[in-house]
Specification:
The protein is mainly alpha-helical. The protein has one domain. It contains four helices and no strands.
Length: about 100
């Protein structure tokens, strides 16, 4: 790859275009892991929680434009997901899904 500068240019262009989403996922993962370790969890579980929160943040961040929210707000949502945690997000989404299913 060092002998192909166009590859580096493409990579940097992609990173420049997607940096809010990447920053949001990393922020979410690190916040979740730090919160988990601070509450007495193991390092292994903290890494898993951070990874899951990062993936949830990527999913949410990619859908922000559907609701008219600019992608620059993705780090805010990443911070919220990281602080709340994957279990909290999953429980809330289950409640919403059950409520919607009951309305049908």
């Amino acid at each position: 790859m060092p002998d192909r500068p166009e590859t580096w240019a493409l990579l940097l262009a992609w990173l420049e275009h997607h940096h809010p989403l990447i920053y949001a996922a990393i922020l979410s993962g690190m916040l979740a892991a730090a919160r988990f370790i601070y509450s007495g969890g193991s390092l292994r579980r903290a890494i898993g929680e951070g990874f899951i929160c990062g993936l949830i943040t990527l999913a949410i961040s990619n859908g922000l434009t559907l609701f008219g929210i600019p992608a620059e707000y993705a780090p805010f949502f990443g911070g919220v997901v990281g602080l709340l945690g994957a279990d909290f997000i999953r429980d809330r989404l289950k409640r919403v899904a059950i409520r919607k299913a009951d309305q049908l």
